[in-house]
What we know:
The chain is built from 18 helices and three strands. By secondary structure, the protein is mostly helical. Strands 1-3-2 form a three-stranded antiparallel beta sheet. It is globular, with a radius of gyration of 22 Å.
Amino acid sequence: MAGIVLIFAVNILVFSIVSVQLVPLGDEDSFLRAAAGLLDNWVMEPYPYSDVRPYGYPLFLVLPVWIGRVFQIDPRIPATVVQSAIYVGAAAALSWEISRVNRTFGIAALFGFSANFFAAAYLTHAMSDGLTIGLALWLAVVAVRVLRAPTFSLVLIGALLLGYSVMVRPANLFLIPLWGAALAVSYRKNFGRLVAAGALSAVVFAGILAPQAYHNRYYYGSTNLLTVVDLGTTQQGLGVLALKYYTLLTPPGFPAVTYNPELQVFAQPANVFYQNPLQVGRPLTWPRIDWYFMHPLQGLATVTLHLFGALDQDFIIPYTSDLTPPLRWPISIINHAVLLLSVIGAVKIMQALSVRKRWEVGIVGVAFLLGFCGVYGTAAVESRFGLPVLAFLFPLAFVGAVCVARMTMSGRVAVAISLSLYVVLALCLSEWLQRQAPPIVAQKQMDDAERRRQAD
């Protein structure tokens, strides 16, 4: 247990040091401004990017901002503590559920949760992704307990978690299939209670969305329930044009540079787009989702690359000015080793379950993955969009590693060969993706030229 605590503590400490050295920009800056406005005025008035941000995460940040003011510290520090506590609690609860199946698997899963440095990189920032990870894990905890012994109190808690998750990050709509499947499986033999559980979830969900709908109507005259801007259409159109994107911090001297008077620094977030070479023609208008149906082969390939890009963590921290980070390849190797080992871990856990539980957990797990694919498959993604999935894959990967260690020598060799082949192919695809981003290509060419110059 001490080792688990130490691993997680080191993870959080390292990324906290990185976080506080970065200026709050982009998402962080707008979230912190919104939270300060809520704290000062008790109402969320329009703030930068409020037309694309719901109230959930600014509301969460009110306490960290207040603590930051009282103790004269960076509000991201208390935000890190709270987000980490939510994550640790959910990780412990899920690991305990796994230990009910196999104690060794439960301990391995807890090690996996603590070693997830991709999660730690965002738990230490005032960004909605860190809280999303914790909320998704807690929703999974409630879903598992609903599968075991459904009660309406659990349904209420799950509906609250689901609704608030969507208000933290609208794309968390992908969690709806997970919750819906858990209810359907749990109450499949009692249609009346299934309808009641669904109605309770819908009422709670609508109640949590209501303040945002009122805010949109009052300040913007919009009837949209989630955000004023139609993010779905925007992201789907961008998904035709770009396979992926990343937020780069440009140095002083770039056009439209933002000046932060409090910190007395210049910096400007800018998006680096991984252009989609599969796009057919150059659309005269903003692309729509029907592009995927008009060009099914290119569309299917684009969806696949979006999903791969979301899980491929080629940049580990939210914002950077370095497009060729030194740890890029070691991190990517770990990233893709986790993906393959998690499959082994999932299979072994499923084999340890009874046939009935195997079907129940399998249906809910597939619903979760289908929800993720449905929301992000047609959208331009950032690596951070895949963090909720990786939060589940890391513990499964550690379970998989334990199972591989127990195999015969021939079994371990077969897994090692398969793992090596997959990782090499995944790294090649990851590199190909980056070569679709002109700024990254240009940076690599400059780095190569500098190395040749130094060699001469």
